[in-house]
Design goal:
Layout (H helix, E strand, L loop, with lengths): L1 H18 L3 H34 L4 H12 L7 H35 L6 H7 L8 H9 L17 H19 L8 H30 L5
Helix pairs in contact: 2-3, 2-4, 2-8, 4-7, 4-8
Length: 223
């Protein structure tokens, strides 16, 4: 019973944090829909492949009915060789979108924190280390420029401790690097979904933390 209550509280907290969001978070959530499209393509491709095999077995009425059923029902887990490229591509795209969010929210935060302190804010942002993967070290170094020693510190949520978050981020970046450098390992659809959900929550949490910390620093909310 308490687990259910805690989950409801956690979900409500995440929703409240997401109600006051940066432009970076709004754009990130919109771009995540591209990952959903790849996941939908995963299911469609698997259904089509199974229906095609059924069609090859014969053209009688029973086979036609089975073909239709294969096309309109959830195919479940696909065969790696049929969906490997989609899942691998989704991981690479998700990494790019997460990095894009990190850079965008850093830019918004810099504009709020430094707008009255620097003559050329654009030059500061351009010189910042915004290249590379969205790994823990790169994220920490980037936000340290704004006075945040470790922006990921204390970020956690239901069933995701801060230590687990850091380990998950490391595992994700390692997987991304292996895939883009030619690894032929199998990536399951559930892994893509799991990472997408995790980074969606991380973005909300990071957005909220920056909002609070910047308010404490300059006296007003940045978004």
């Amino acid at each position: 019973m308490w687990d259910v209550i805690l989950q409801v509280i956690s979900d409500k907290s995440i929703k409240q944090e997401a109600d006051m969001k940066s432009n970076a978070l709004t754009n990130f959530e919109s771009r995540l829909k591209e990952i959903d499209q790849l996941l939908d393509a995963h299911s469609a491709l698997t259904s089509l492949r199974r229906a095609t095999k059924t069609a090859e077995s014969g053209g009688d009425l029973a086979s036609i009915g089975l073909i239709v059923q294969q096309l309109v029902t959830d195919p479940g887990r696909g065969r790696p060789k049929e969906v490997h490229a989609l899942n691998s591509g989704a991981i690479a795209l998700l990494s790019a979108h997460l990095q894009g969010y990190i850079v965008d929210v850093f830019t918004e935060a810099a504009q709020a924190v430094l707008k009255d302190r620097l003559d050329d804010l654009n030059a500061f942002v351009s010189a910042a280390p915004t290249q590379g993967n969205p790994n823990e070290d790169n994220i920490r170094k980037l936000f340290r420029l704004l006075g945040f020693k470790d922006i990921l510190q204390d970020i956690s949520w239901q069933k995701m401790s801060n230590d687990s978050l850091r380990k998950k981020l490391k595992a994700f970046n390692q997987l991304r690097n292996r895939l883009v450098h030619g690894s032929n390992e199998t990536v399951q659809k559930r892994s893509v979904t799991n990472y997408k959900n995790a980074w969606s929550i991380l973005a909300v949490k990071l957005d909220g933390k920056l909002r609070t910390r910047i308010k404490r620093s300059i006296g007003s909310y940045p978004w």
